[in-house]
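Lab notebook, bench 4. The sequencing result for the construct came back, and we need a structural model before the next group meeting so we can plan mutations. Quick request posted to the team channel:

Model the 3D structure of this chain.
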Amino acid sequence: IQALMPNMPYDALKDLQPVAQVATGGTFLIVTPDLPVSNLKEFVALIKANPGKYDYGSWGIGSGGHLQMEWLKMHSGLQMNHVPYKSTTPMVTDLQSGVIRIAFADTGTTLPLIKAGRLKAIAISGTKRAVGLPELPTMREQGFPFDVDAWYAFFAPANTPMPIVNRLNAEIGKVLADPANLPRFTSINLVPASPYLTPAQFGDSVRNDIELWSKVIKAANIKPTL
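Done. Here's the predicted structure in token form:
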């Protein structure tokens, strides 16, 4: 988004037409098994009692994991140090070895490690619990009103005629409504977008997300390294 990379050659709001939100999901807040917390309130209490002591990882500056933790820091008054990685794989490797002890991480890569007891999940971002870990409460359920989902979607050029946009939205909706396709989503801890949004409704959601993340980026003074 422009707040993070003002020199991008396009504007997501002006140059793209939202067509359909396909799937949504959350991100696990993960800690090492030895960290003495079992839920988000205990985590916040621990970090607040030890300002600046703990590092957290993300899969890059401006990534979802980075922005989500900065939101939590701002919301709860936490002081933590950010360690950006080039991808999820080295971050999760360092989590397992204790180089870092905290991170937001994707639900697909880390779920087997959580179930094996090699990592510990204490919350999930977004509006829904993970299909593969339904006992883990969301951040909101634990008293922290974070209601932004990660999502996958279709967009078209901004000048695409609306009859075409609406037809695409309707056809995509039919595919998502087919129960035969549900296992493909649940296998990667995603769910089909529900409620299914019209192009206008999805556009409003995109604008709300950009507004939220722009505020976080500016407040935390996040700048890209490129």
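The chain has seven helices and eight strands.
Will bring this to the meeting.
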